[in-house]
Amino acid sequence: MSVNREMECSMAGIVFAFIQVIQMALSLFVYILIASAIFSWLYAFNVINSSNRFVNSVGSFVYNVTEPVLRPIRRILPDLGGIDISPIVLILIIYFLQMIISNPIQPALLSLVS
Q1: How far is CA 49 from the centre of its chain?
Q2: Cβ neighbours of 57 (radius 10 Å)
Q3: Neighbours of 53 (CB within 10 A)
C-alpha cells in the first residue's frame, strides 16, 4: 500500500468519525427538543412546580438550548393560535440533514477506507 493510499484511508477514517459525532449530536438535540416540548406542556398545564429550583434550572437550560434555533422557524411559520409546530419542523429538518449526511457521504468514505 502506498503512502498516499494510507493517508487517504486515515483521513477518510477521521472524516467518518467526525460525521458520526455530528450524527450523534443531532440525535441528542432531537431528544432535547422533545424534552423541551414536553416540559413546556407540563409547565403550561401547571403539572410541575415552577417555583422548584431544580425544575426551574432544567426548564431554563432546555429553553436556552432550543430557543435560538426555534425562534427563526417561528418567525417563518404562520400563526396557528396556541399550537407551536416549530419543534416538529426542526426535527424534520434535522432528520433531513442526517439523511443527507448518511446516504451519499458515508458510503463514499467507507469505500475509501476498505
Answers
A1: 28
A2: 10
A3: 8
